[in-house]
Amino acid sequence: ALSGAINHIAVRVLSPTDHPIDGISISNTPQRGRRPHSPVGSEYQFGGLVDSVELLVVPAVRVENLFARPDCETGEIRISANIRNAGEKSVVAYLRFVVAPASSGETLQAITLNRSISPGDTLVETKLKVNHPHLWDTSDPYLYRVTARIQVPQPDASNEVSTRFGFRDFRFVDGAFRLNGRRIFLKSSHSGNMFPGGHRLPLDPDLLRRDLLNSKAMGFNMIRFFCEIAD
Predict the structure, then answer these.
(1) Beta strand 43-44 with 34-35: parallel, antiparallel or unpaired?
(2) CA torsion 60→62→64→65, rounded to 10°?
């Protein structure tokens, strides 16, 4: 993309069957059980954009990826940030990392680093800490948010990325699952992530939330999204 110029974005959607479109047939597209016709146990072939799409306008030096790995015993959060410099010269950047409750946003701890960012990718690792972290649980899904902000003085530009996470410990010990040290019996159902009327796109977006609430009301505490990515 060129700054100050007219940029054109083209999106093309193909939903071919066994009859190719410009040489592309159903066997050349990502699929699971989809078929151009719908026999028992298969899913009708569909095409299109089935989730939100964003166009991000970012500076040449930016936070490309951000990962937070919390430890619920110590409250420590290991942070890994991939910084992308799409320019041709190294720059000095100021990086600030902040942790806060996701719902309210008050800063619990912050750290500022100075780094020389070479062209390409630079991995920056640091740590933050939350004292006495509020643990995530099935009936109390408490989340925190880590925000990474990068500032380049010359030319003056900034970029900010955040990610949510929860403090929790889930493991299998002595023949039983344990969540935060407490034994838990998993009661799971599964979902194809589909909806009445809209199939892939629910006619009422609240169906996404109600589907999980109804499952929980029936006594389930886990859902397997069967061969799909959860919306």
Answers:
(1) parallel
(2) 170
